[in-house]
Amino acid sequence: xxxxxxxxxxxxxxxxxxxxxxxxxxxxxxxxxxxxxxxxxxxxxxxxxxxxxxxxxxxxxxxxxxxxxxxxxxxxxxxxxxxxxxxxxxxxxxxxxxxxxxxxxxxxxxxxxxxxxxxxxxxxxxxxxxxxxxxxxxxxxxxxxxxxxxxxxxxxxxxxxxxxxxxxxxxxxxxxxxxxxxxxxxxxxxxxxxxxxxxxxxxxxxxxxxxxxxxxxxxxxxxxxxxxxxxxxxxxxxxxxxxxxxxxxxxxxxxxxxxxxxxxxxxxxxxxxxxxxxxxxxxxxxxxxxxxxxxxxxxxxxxxxxxxxxxxxxxxxxxxxxxxxxxxxxxxxxxxxxxxxxxxxxxxxxxxxxxxxxxxxxxxxxxxxxxxxxxxxxxxxxxxxxxxxxxxxxxxxxxxxxxxxxxxxxxxxxxxxxxxxxx
Length: 423
Hints:
Blueprint: E1 3-5, E2 8-11, E3 14-17, E4 20-23, E5 27-30, E6 35-38, E7 42-44, E8 49-52, E9 55-58, E10 62-64, E11 69-71, E12 76-79, E13 83-85, E14 93-97, E15 103-107, E16 114-119, E17 127-129, E18 133-140, E19 146-149, E20 155-157, E21 162-164, E22 170-173, E23 180-185, E24 190-192, E25 194-195, E26 204-208, E27 213-220, E28 237-246, E29 254-260, E30 274-280, E31 283-285, E32 295-297, E33 299-307, E34 311-317, H1 345-348, E35 399-406, E36 414-422
Parallel strand pairs: 1-4, 2-5, 3-6, 4-7, 5-8, 6-9, 7-10, 8-11, 9-12, 10-13, 12-14, 13-15, 14-16, 15-17, 16-18, 17-19, 18-20, 18-21, 19-22, 20-23, 22-25
Antiparallel strand pairs: 23-27, 24-26, 26-29, 27-28, 28-34, 29-33, 30-31, 30-34, 32-33, 35-36
C-alpha cells in the first residue's frame, strides 16, 4: 500500500489522496476554505501537527498517535471510520462522523473537548464511544437513523451546549451505565434526547428553578420494583424509566416532562390517567394531584413539578397512585333529625342530581384536584335515581358531599378531592 508522508503541507484548496496519509512528525496546515481529503486512513504520528481551519476528511479512520497534536477550532475533522486521539489533548475541535460503516471508537483522550459533534452517518450505522467525551458547543443530528451509543461512557454537555434536531431515530442510547451530563441546568430547562435501545426514544426535559446544578440522566429498559434494581413491572408502569442524579444534592426545584411511545405501554395501561412516579423511601410516590391524561405530539408526555430531589422516575397509571382509605362519619346540619339520623327529603323530592355538582364556578372552595370523574375506578355520577334508594331501613342517600384531603404541612394545598354520596 502507498503511504503519503507529510512534513510541511499548506493546504488552501482541495488535496485528495487515494491511499492513506501519514504525517510522520511534520506539520499540516489547512487554511480557511481549504480541504484535505484522504480515501484511506489519516495517521498523525508522534510529534506531528495538524492545524485545521478548513476541512480534513478521512474516508476511513483518523488516528492521532502519542504526542501528536490536533488543533484548529475553525474547521471540521470529518471521519467515516474511527476517531482515535492517543496524542495530546485538544480543545474545541469540530468532528463530523459520516459514512455507512459503524464507528466503533470515538476516543478523545483525557482533557479534550469538542466544540461540536455532528452525527451524519448513513441510517443504521452506529457510533460508539470508547471513552468519556465533553462537548462545549453542541451536538447535531442532521440525518435520520443516527444514534450515539454510550455503553459505559459519559457524554458531558457544557453550560452552553445543546442538541439539534433530535427525534425518535436521532438520539443518545444509554444502554449501559453511561450517562448524559448537562452542566448548570437552570429554569430554562434542558432536553435529554435519550433512549435505552434502537427503537426506544424516551426524551426527558428537565428544568430546575432552584440552585443551578449539574445533572446526569440515563434511560433504563424497564421500570423496576426497587427503582434502580429488582424485577420489572408487568403492569401499571410503562416499559421505561429514568435515573436522574445531581452533582450537589439539595437546593433543587425540578420540573420533569417525560416522553414515551404507545409501544412502551403494557396491556391495560391507563394513558388517560397517568403521571410521573418517583422512587423514594423504598416505594413509588405518585400524588393523585399529578394524575391526568397524557398530551400527545407523536409521543405521549406527562409533566411533574415541585420535585425537591433527583432520583428514579417512571410513568405509571392510576393503579399506582398514592392512596388512603378513609372511614368518615358526617352529619349534615340541615338534614339532621336529632336522633342520630338524617332525613332523605331531597331524595324523596327527586332533586339530588345524578352527576356530582361541585366545581370551581360554584365556589373557589370546590376546586377539584387528583383522580376523579369517569374512570373505571372512580365514577362521580350515577346511572339513575334508583341508586339513591338503598335497600333496608333508614339507609337511603341524603345528598352529595365534597371531601378534600389536605397537606399536613401546608393545609392550603389540596392533595386529592372527591365527590361522594352520603347515606
